[in-house]
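User: Show me a protein chain along with its predicted structure.
Assistant: Here is one chain, sequence first, then structure tokens.
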Amino acid sequence: MSRQALVNDVLTAALFDGSELRGCGPGGFVEQARPDVVAGHGFGDLAALVAAGALRRRDALRLAIVRDQLVEQAAAGVGGGMLAVTARDAEAAASRLVERTGVAIARHDSPERVVLAGSQEHLEHARAVAALLGIAVADLPATAALHSRALGAAAEVFEWVLESVSFHEPAIPVYSSVTAALVGDDPRNELAQCLDMPVLWTDTVRALQSAGAARFVVCGSAHELGELGLQTLTGARELVDA
């Protein structure tokens, strides 16, 4: 399918998180779901590229291991963590915390959930301010400020590692959650940016729907993506677990 064929067609979009790489792999899932377009949340971009035939699974697994090591190094160095903001208008609530504390927006997960990242000191300040403002927040299991400028050095190293990996023309279109747009001819830049740039998942899901996707299939263990999708999608649509 050409990229131009996305427009005005009713498509099946497959949504991935990074856990699919460590399971049975995206290949079998794709054979079952037969998606027309794929997208990954954060480092689920790797699984999406594998599913589209643009990246070999063994290379994606190696990249995932390197990425985990870089995050561990960042955790041991600059440290930090992540905090989820849940509200009817999570963007506005998160922006209020960003304005008053030293945290940054790391993930735009849905209209009802935005994730913040920062140092432990800044996160503690954000929790206190959230309590004063009546904003619901919850700690996420992260030992580093992922998807923020704190991972800038890690992103530079990862970009260098990506140069040793071969990428191929995808068999189906792939959307990047860093740009909320079709992955370019060379996805290395987007993959590196996924460490130190925010995840634009809300915009990515909306872009898929605007491009014609009406059926969304959530892969393997990525059930949380289904909940986020329900919070984001509008109009007639179908969202199922594979």
